[in-house]
Amino acid sequence: MIDYIKESFEELKNHVSWPNWADAQNLTVIVAIFSIIFSLAIWGVDTVFGRVVEMYYDLLS
User: Fold this and answer.
1) What DSSP string runs through 1-61?
2) SS3 category, 15
């Protein structure tokens, strides 16, 4: 297990190409915008389903 961890760190240090600072900032902004859009979409679907379920139970009462 220790060898695996050492090899993993070695791989990260020497064989992974990391983005430069400007690319990292651009990608962070893209992820943030996508996260906001996705959370708003989930909120909208949740609101619609909540109202549908509420209307269904009102009809049963």
Assistant:
1) -HHHHHHHHHHHHHTPPPP-HHHHHHHHHHHHHHHHHHHHHHHHHHHHHHHHHHHHHHHH-
2) coil
Q: How far apart are CA 29 and CA 32, in angstroms?
A: 5
* pTM for the whole structure: 0.66
What span, in angstroms and rounded, lies between the C-alpha atoms of 5 and 7?
Answer: 5
Tokens at 20, concatenated: 């430069």
d(CA 34, CA 40): 10
61 has a pLDDT exceeding 90: no
Task: Read off the tokens for 58.
Answer: 């009102």
